[in-house]
Amino acid sequence: MVDKKFIVAAIGVIVALGAVGPSLAQMFQHAEAHGVQAQLQSRFVRIDGETWSKQSVHTGDTLSVSGKFVSLVNRDLRGWYTVYGDSSNAGNRWEIVARDPPGNVITIPANAVVPYKLTIKALEPAVYHMHTQLNIASIGPGLGPGQTVVVTGDPIVKPIPYTNVVYQSIVIGVGYAVTFATRPWQVI
What we know:
By secondary structure, this protein is α+β, with helices and mostly antiparallel strands. It has a domain at 45-152: Jelly Rolls, CATH 2.60.120. Helices cover 26% and strands 39% of the residues. The protein has helices at 4-27, 162-182, 184-187; strands at residues 45-52, 56-58, 62-71, 77-87, 94-100, 106-108, 113-122, 126-136, 140-143, 147-152. Strands 2, 4, 6, 8, 9 and 10 form a six-stranded mixed sheet that branches. Strands 1-3-7-5 form a four-stranded antiparallel sheet, with no helix packed on it. A hairpin with a 3-residue loop joins strand 8 (126-136) and strand 9. The chain is extended, with a radius of gyration of 26 Å.
């Protein structure tokens, strides 16, 4: 049978924690994050030395992010890099002005270090938590450490290139037609 002293001690501890618990919770500061998950840190290429030129800009202004892509594997990799911006208004509107190395797709040689610089223009005001994002072919994305950037000013509205929308719609339609015509048993 359970000792009465043990029961009294257990009840005493429960009552004490109930009284002190809420004040202990207030002693610790509240912390928030934007949900970047651990798997977004690549095991294939590490983003080192990510540096942002500014922490605050006005819409229409440019800022640059630079750093190094460090290959962690013994084979060449192909990928493309951009910026990822997380904000409360879900705007995330940035325009890429310049890339170094240039081009949409880059090669990262095996066990090499590739310096990069990306210049972007702010198009929509918000508080963004920005990262360099490197998307490696057949592997997926990886993010740099990140920096908070505050954008003020009026939104810049870019015209919609309707010719591109029409062209893409035609290509998608042709793809569906070919799929339906050649594999009708897999579509149903």
